[in-house]
Design brief:
alpha/beta; 519 residues; globular; 6-stranded mixed sheet
């Protein structure tokens, strides 16, 4: 049915452009899959998690591609499939093959193309397959050929393998962490693709790629603080203001997957060989030179230390990041270790104790029980540790149901259970809590709470602006911030900071063949 819908919407887009114009306009396809996948989590990701958009639905992912947008009128667009999953465990091979083959089938059906916009994250892990994005783009090339220009946009926490670098023609990534420039980056990828096609310049002549043997969590490389702030400020002047350069980027890479391609990368694309290579080497050297200066974006401590500071502080709301099981970094989301510790503390066992919101713990059975008794009813059960029980068993939850809300895309059903002075958010499926409305729609008032504990790393903008104070608790989980506690076996070594005294690496630019050469 979805394939029929895709065919109809593509046909409709062709008609809406007008047959008279179609001969003058480039044909550009849109495709992509995005997820961060921790190989240190026992969770797995299935196809439905990608919430795939087909055909005309794809436009809804991009505000700059709405019908009134000038960009929409500059090409005949062929939207195939775009899927974005909440970060999680490795993708099943079945899910990956299904989504990739659907994409390839659509691309075959509506070929040929002048260009393709490839929208990926860059940190997808797939069971039994190294470098999924490299595999995906290679298979796309086999369908659309090597003359078609591909423009790729990525998260700066993605991984750029040599294979991915070779098969794309234009490449760009976010320049901010948190990623407040995500949509701006995607639009830049599309605009530059259009410019290269319409100007007749075609593929840039040179692509400089430099692997930088650094592997750090995003919480140490935020552009809110130094040295990440100054390092990333060097990108725009190189990428946007130099004749002969089309784009440049610094990829931090993804720290929670044990794969050979997982490390930092610098890449510069353009037509001037000297500028391309020198700019790439300048950025790579600048990155390496500040490697010892990276530190966490917030104060850190054990959970006990974090709770002690929060309880003693006159500043409210005091945010605590429960970092080890962060679902937006790839954690399973159902590790109960932190919540177990909180509920065991006597301060929180009285109804009039310090108010604390905990976001969140998934458990469909407890949600079902809460729905059965309704708001105001009592529940007595256990939650969590269905997927990741390595650190603590399911946590007992006995309390009063304060609210029940249905309809969230990720959680599906959300329930607030009051246990002592703690409001525990229990979800049918895991969900990140990044915005004030995520809390207020449940009847919670985070600004009036003494403490808010969120499964997250660095606070997303709304929470960051809401906080009166903040600490990151270095808790266990599939995305443990202490990389020395992770059992790496397959990443390339030596790697900073795991091999702190390693020699200075070769940071000379490696020129990647233009797609179609040496295929």
């Amino acid at each position: 049915m979805k394939q029929i819908f895709l065919g109809f919407t593509v046909w409709l887009s062709l008609v809406s452009v007008g047959w008279g114009q179609s001969a003058r306009l480039p044909r550009i396809a849109i495709a992509g899959l995005g997820i961060e996948s921790s190989t240190f989590s026992p969770a797995v990701t299935h196809e439905e998690a990608f919430h795939a958009r087909y055909g005309g639905e794809v436009y809804n992912a991009y505000p700059f591609m709405m019908p009134v947008s000038p960009l929409r009128k500059q090409a005949i667009w062929v939207p195939t499939i775009v899927g974005k999953s909440l970060p999680g465990g490795a993708v099943t091979r079945e899910a990956y093959e299904s989504l990739v083959n659907k994409t390839l089938d659509s691309l075959k059906k509506y070929a040929p193309y002048d260009g393709l916009y490839f929208d990926i994250h860059g940190a997808m892990s797939v069971q039994g397959l190294d470098d999924p994005e490299g595999d995906f783009i290679t298979r796309i090339r086999q369908v659309i050929g090597y003359k078609t220009l591909i423009s790729t946009s990525m998260d700066l926490h993605g991984n750029v393998s040599q294979r991915l670098a070779q098969h794309t023609d234009l490449m760009t990534c976010y320049r901010l962490a948190p990623h407040e420039d995500a949509m701006q980056t995607k639009e830049r990828a599309v605009v530059r693709l259009l410019e290269r096609i319409k100007s007749g310049k075609g593929k840039p002549a040179y692509k400089a790629w430099i692997p930088v043997p650094i592997l750090l969590p995003g919480e140490k490389t935020s552009t809110r603080i130094e040295p990440g702030k100054s390092l990333y400020q060097q990108v725009a002047p190189i990428a946007d203001n130099q004749e002969g350069i089309v784009d440049a980027g610094i990829w931090i890479g993804y720290a929670w997957a044990d794969e050979p391609r997982n490390h930092a990368v610098v890449m510069v694309v353009g037509d001037d060989k000297t500028k391309v290579t020198q700019s790439a080497e300048k950025l790579a050297t600048a990155f390496w030179n500040v490697r010892n200066e990276f530190d966490f974006v917030a104060p850190t401590g054990t959970l006990d230390e974090a709770l002690a500071k929060a309880l003693a502080s006159p500043k409210h709301p005091y945010f605590i990041s429960d970092t080890g099981d962060n679902p937006t970094a790839g954690g399973a989301g159902d590790v109960t270790w932190t919540l177990t510790q909180i509920l065991a503390r006597p301060e929180f066992q009285k109804v009039d104790g310090p108010s604390l919101i905990y976001a969140s713990i998934p458990d469909p059975d407890l949600v079902k029980q809460a729905m059965a008794v309704g708001v105001g009813g009592q529940v007595d059960g256990k939650a969590g540790a269905r997927v990741d029980a390595r650190f603590a068993p399911p946590v007992p939850i006995k309390g009063t149901v304060k609210s029940i809300v249905k309809g969230d895309q990720n959680a599906e059903v959300e329930v607030v259970v009051k246990v002592g002075s703690v409001n525990v958010i229990v979800t049918q499926k895991r969900k990140p809590y990044h915005k004030e409305a995520d809390f207020t729609r449940l009847g919670l008032k985070p600004r009036e709470s003494d403490i808010v504990v969120v499964k997250i790393g660095y606070l997303e903008p709304e929470l960051y602006n809401m906080r009166a104070d903040w600490i990151m608790a270095l808790t266990p989980g599939g995305v443990d911030q202490d990389l020395f506690r992770l059992p790496y076996k397959r990443i390339q070594r030596p790697m900073f900071p795991l091999d702190k005294d390693m020699k200075t690496p070769d940071l000379k630019a490696r020129l990647i063949p233009v797609s179609g050469e040496g295929k």
